[in-house]
Write a structure and sequence with these properties.
Number of domains: 3
Shape: globular
Helix content: 25-40%
Number of strands: 22
Distance between the termini: 46 Å
CATH superfamily of the largest domain: Thiolase/Chalcone synthase
Strand content: 15-25%
Number of helices: 21
Structural class: alpha/beta
CATH architecture of the largest domain: 3-Layer(aba) Sandwich
Strand order of the largest sheet: 6-5-7-8-1-9-16-15-10-11-13
Length: 668
C-alpha cells in the first residue's frame, strides 16, 4: 500500500469516527469520502455493509430466535421431524420403512413443504413442482430485502446482483425431482440448480449478475465473497448473497461416517470430539457499499472489511485440510481488510468437531497470528455447528449471523458442548482460546472485529474479516409532534391482520427507531397491495395505541380518528355492476395523479388536511409517491417487521409404485 493510500485510509477512518461521535453529519461525511475516493488514483476498495438479512435455521425462523438458542447454549440437533417422515415414507423400501429409525440425527427445519406462491405470482401447479430449495431461497431472499427497507418494487429494474451458495451433492443424489413421476418443463425449471439465484432476479426484476456457487461446505461464504467483490468493482449497486442446504432424504447409510459425530453431539475443539452432524438452513444478506449505505441512511448490521478465497492444493488427501493453506488464507484476508490482526478479538471457526481437523485449524490460526504477534490468548474462537449442525452450503451464513448478533448484543455465546480441550492442541501457548462461557464483548476505542472461516472438503477455503457497524446516534425527538402517515398493506386480509399483530409486538419493544423513520420505511420500503391501512400519528405512543386497538378489535370493526382501512381491486371498465371497492385502471391512474399534484402544491407537507386526503385516496387504491413527503427530511430506512407470507403446503403426491428398491447409494 502506497503512502498516499495510507493517508487516505487514515482520513477515512477519522471521518467515520467523527460521524460515530456525532461531530459530523452523515451527509457531510459522505461528500468528503466521495471526494477522497475520486482523488484516489490507487483505487482503494470500499468496505461493504450488511443492511438487511433473513434466515431459517434449525430451531430459529428469525434473528431473535437464533440468538435465544445461541445465548442459552442449546443444540437443535435431533431426529427427523415426524411430519416430514410422512412425505418420504411412501418411496422407501419395506426394509427401511419398518426400521426403527433409519434417519440421521441432524439439525432439521420443521417444515420445507410450504410456500406463498400467490405472493410471487406463481401458479399452484408450478409451485407444486418447484423444489423446496427454490421456494425457500426465494422467500428468504425477499425477506432480506424487506428487512433492509427495500421491499415491494423498491428495486424493480435495479442493478442488484444475486449470489447463491449450495452444495449440489445433497441435491443431486436425491432431490424433490425424484418424487415427480412424470417431470415436465415446470419440474425442470423448478429443480435446476442454475436457476436458484436467477429465479430471485426474475421474480423481483433485478438486473444485476445472478450466480450460483458450489464449492461444497464453503459455498455461501464464497458467494458472499463474490458479491462483495462485485460491489467493489461496481458490477452491481446492491447484492443479495446467501446459501441453502436441505436434507431431503437423510438416511443413515454411513457413507460419511468417518467425519460424523457419534450420538448426534458435535464437540468442537473438545477432547471427545468425534465429528460433525449435518444441518438444514437458509440465510441471505442484503449488501451495499458502506459509503452508499451511510449516505442513504440504511440500518447497518455489520461491515465486511475484507475477504479471501484459496484452495488447499496438494495436501495429504483431496479432502484433507491444509494448515499452511489456511494460514495463507487468513494473511491474505487480513491484508485485504487493511487491519492489524491483533484487533481481531473473535473468530467464528469452521470447527467441524473432529480431533485432527480442529487441531489443524488451530495450527493455521496460530501460524497466521505469529506473523504479527507472539502474544497468547488474544482471540476467542467458537463454532456454531454444535448448536445447529453443519449447514454445508449455508454454513457461512450461520457463522456470519452469529457474529452479527454478538456485535449487537455485546456478548459472545459459549461454544456448545465444549468441556475439555482437544489434547493435541496446546491452548496455553496459543494465540487463540475457546470461548467456553458467555463472554461480554466490550466496546473500546478500536472497533470490534471478528473473523469467519469456512472450509470445505472440496479444498476451497474462505475467510472474512467483519467489523461492528458504525455508531448510530439514537433518534432525537424534536418535541414538535408533527403528524406522520404510517401505512400497512398486504395481498389478503388475513396477511394484513397478521402484519398488524407483528407491529403490535414490535412497537412494544422498539426503543431506537423514530416515528419519522418508521413511517418513512413503512411507505417507501414496502409494497402496496389490495388491502391497506393508513394511520396519522404525531407520536410513537399514539401510533402504538392505534395499532393496539386494530390488533384487539380487528381491522373491520375499528372506528378511530385518523385510522383509514380499505381494499380495492382492478376491474375492466366494461363492468357495469361494480361494488364500492372495485375501480378501473384509469380511475386508479387519475386518483394517483391527483394525489401527486396535491403533494407537489402543498408547501406544508405536515398539513393535516393533506395527510387525510392522501390516506383516503391511498386506501381506495391510489399509488402515492411517498418520497415526495420526505424530500426535506433526514430519514433513514430501519428494520421493521417483514411481510407475513401465507405459506401453503405444496407437495407432490407420491404414488405407491414409485417406491425405490435401492437407496443404499443415497448420501445425506
Amino acid at each position: 500500500m502506497s503512502s498516499r493510500q495510507v493517508q487516505l485510509q487514515e482520513l477515512n477512518k477519522q471521518i467515520i469516527n467523527m460521524v460515530r461521535d456525532g461531530k459530523m453529519s452523515k451527509q457531510l461525511a459522505f461528500s468528503l469520502l466521495k471526494e477522497l475516493t475520486s482523488r484516489n488514483d490507487g483505487g482503494q476498495k470500499s468496505d461493504v455493509a450488511v443492511v438487511g438479512l433473513s434466515l431459517r435455521f434449525p430451531g430459529a425462523n428469525n434473528l431473535q430466535e437464533y440468538w435465544d438458542l445461541l445465548k442459552k447454549g442449546e443444540s437443535r440437533i435431533g431426529s427427523f421431524p415426524p411430519s416430514r417422515r410422512e412425505d418420504i415414507y411412501p418411496i422407501l423400501p419395506d426394509a427401511l420403512r419398518s426400521a426403527k429409525d433409519p434417519f440421521l440425527q441432524a439439525g432439521y427445519l420443521e417444515e420445507i413443504d410450504k410456500f406463498d406462491a400467490a405472493y410471487f405470482q406463481i401458479s399452484p401447479d408450478e409451485a407444486e413442482l418447484m423444489d423446496p430449495y427454490h421456494r425457500l431461497f426465494l422467500e428468504v431472499a425477499y425477506e432480506a430485502l424487506e428487512d433492509g427497507g427495500y421491499g415491494g418494487d423498491s428495486l424493480n429494474g435495479s442493478k442488484t446482483g444475486v449470489y447463491a451458495g449450495i452444495d449440489h451433492t445433497h441435491k443431486a443424489n436425491f432431490s424433490y425431482l425424484h418424487l415427480i413421476k412424470n417431470p415436465d418443463f415446470f419440474a425442470m425449471t423448478g429443480s435446476k440448480t442454475a436457476i436458484l439465484a436467477s429465479r430471485v432476479s426474475y421474480s423481483l426484476n433485478l438486473n444485476g449478475p445472478s450466480m450460483v456457487f458450489d464449492t461444497g461446505c464453503s459455498s455461501s461464504a464464497v458467494a458472499l465473497h463474490a458479491a462483495c467483490k462485485a460491489l467493489q468493482n461496481k458490477e452491481c449497486d446492491l447484492a443479495l448473497a446467501g446459501g441453502i442446504n436441505l436434507l431431503m432424504l437423510p438416511l443413515d447409510v454411513g457413507m460419511l461416517s468417518p467425519i460424523e459425530a457419534v450420538g448426534g453431539e458435535v464437540k468442537p475443539f473438545d477432547k471427545d470430539a468425534t465429528g460433525a452432524c449435518w444441518g438444514e438452513g437458509v440465510g441471505v444478506v442484503l449488501l451495499k457499499p458502506l459509503n452508499k449505505a451511510l449516505e442513504d441512511g440504511d440500518t447497518i448490521y455489520s461491515v465486511i472489511k475484507g475477504s479471501a478465497v484459496n484452495t488447499n492444493g496438494a495436501s495429504n488427501g483431496i479432502t484433507s485440510f491444509n494448515a499452511e493453506a489456511q494460514k495463507d488464507l487468513l494473511l491474505t484476508a487480513w491484508k485485504d481488510a487493511r487491519i492489524k490482526p491483533e484487533t481481531i478479538s473473535y473468530i467464528e471457526a469452521h470447527g467441524m468437531g473432529t480431533l485432527v481437523g480442529d487441531a489443524m485449524e488451530v495450527s493455521g490460526l496460530n501460524n497466521s497470528f505469529r506473523f504479527h504477534t507472539h502474544e497468547t490468548q488474544i482471540c476467542g474462537i467458537g463454532s456454531v455447528k454444535a448448536n445447529i449442525g453443519h449447514l454445508v452450503g449455508a454454513s457461512g451464513m450461520a457463522s456470519l449471523f452469529k457474529v452479527i448478533l454478538s456485535f449487537n448484543k455485546g456478548l459472545i455465546p459459549a461454544t456448545c458442548n465444549y468441556r475439555e480441550p482437544n489434547p493435541t492442541i496446546n491452548f496455553n501457548d496459543s494465540a487463540v482460546y475457546v470461548v467456553d462461557k458467555p463472554t461480554p464483548w466490550e466496546k473500546s476505542k478500536e472497533a470490534r472485529r471478528a473473523g469467519i472461516s469456512s472450509f470445505s472438503l472440496s479444498g476451497t477455503n474462505c475467510h472474512f474479516v467483519v467489523e461492528e457497524p458504525p455508531h448510530h446516534a439514537p433518534a432525537v425527538v424534536d418535541g414538535k409532534h408533527q403528524p406522520h402517515v404510517f401505512v400497512l398493506s398486504c395481498r389478503t386480509k388475513v396477511a394484513l391482520e397478521r402484519l398488524v399483530e407483528r407491529y403490535h409486538t414490535y412497537l412494544v419493544s422498539n426503543d431506537s427507531n423514530s416515528l419519522d423513520d418508521i413511517c418513512f420505511t413503512s411507505s417507501v420500503g414496502r409494497g402496496h397491495y389490495r388491502y391497506r391501512i393508513a394511520i396519522i400519528a404525531s407520536t410513537l405512543e399514539e401510533l402504538k395505541e392505534k395499532i393496539d386497538v386494530l390488533n384487539a378489535q380487528g381491522i373491520e370493526h375499528v372506528e378511530q380518528t385518523d385510522v383509514f382501512c380499505g381494499e380495492h381491486s382492478i376491474v375492466p371498465s366494461t363492468k357495469w355492476d361494480r361494488n364500492c371497492s372495485e375501480i378501473t385502471e384509469g380511475e386508479k391512474r387519475q386518483m394517483s395523479k391527483s394525489v401527486s399534484a396535491l403533494i407537489a402544491q402543498e408547501t406544508d407537507k405536515d398539513c393535516t388536511d393533506l395527510l387525510e386526503t392522501i390516506c383516503v385516496k391511498y386506501v381506495q387504491g391510489a399509488d402515492v409517491d411517498w418520497k415526495q413527503l420526505y424530500l426535506d427530511r433526514k430519514t433513514r430506512r430501519v428494520n421493521l417487521p417483514v411481510y407475513p407470507l401465507e405459506r401453503t403446503r405444496y407437495w407432490i403426491k407420491v404414488a405407491q409404485d414409485q417406491k425405490k428398491d435401492d437407496l443404499s447409494v443415497t448420501i445425506k
